[in-house]
Amino acid sequence: MTTALLDFMTTEWHLATLDELCVRDFPATHGWSDVGAGGPGYHLVVLETTRGLGTGDDGSSREEIARRFAACREGVSRRLGERWGEAEPKSLDGVFLRSEDPGERIPKPWAYLSAYVRHVDLWKADDSGRWVAVGVSDPAEGPDLQLFALVTDLPPP
Predict the structure, then answer these.
(1) CB–CB of 154/109 below 8 Å?
(2) Whose CA is closest to 43, among 145, 143, 128?
(3) Beta bridge partners of 89
(4) In the list 38, 42, 111, 121, which could disulfide-bond 27, CB 3.0-4.6 Å?
(5) What pLDDT, in 10s, does the model give residues 25-74?
(6) Which tens digits make up the pLDDT trace of 120-155?
């Protein structure tokens, strides 16, 4: 198969996952499900991960994988934008800093996501009214790159 066809199939799979999460009931308690983490008001999933891909010590393969993940996020974002309009780019840096403050109450899904992802594309899904955020983990934050998606009924802080 060609790379373009594989990219299209991957994007379609990610969209199908997000479609399912936009209509699936939220778990009653915090924990793990067949698709990822969840709890009252949210589903948090890793759509793709580098875990086990063995990025090179010289950083070249890691840079290439980071570009691939960014392109994958852009593909998903482009398709979601066709449905719900242009994404709202949202920095989670402030959310992360506030979540570290014991006096601050940041909703769990946004605190979890901000621990890994610094910037997301954000929409409010027309059909379900849920918030959908898609972002790639910060390459400087750890050994694995991950493409995250959050579906929640809790607005971003």
Answers:
(1) yes
(2) 128
(3) 121
(4) 38
(5) 999 999 998 889 999 999 999 998 886 555 555 455 777 778 888 888 99
(6) 999 999 888 899 999 999 776 677 889 999 999 999
Q: Pull the structure tokens for residue 143.
A: 């050994």
Cα–Cα distance measured from residue 40 to residue 123, given in angstroms and rounded to the nearest whole number: 20
d(CA 102, CA 42): 22
CA distances to 7, 9, 10, 74 from 3, in Å = 6, 10, 10, 16
Partners of 43 in beta bridges: 38, 151
Tokens 């979890």, residue? 112
The full DSSP string for 93-143 is HHHHHHHTSTT----HHHHHHHTTBSEEEEEE-TTT--EEEEEEB-GGG-S
| Local confidence band at 91 (pLDDT 50, 70, 90 cut-offs) | very high
What's the average model confidence in pLDDT over 86-101?
A: 94
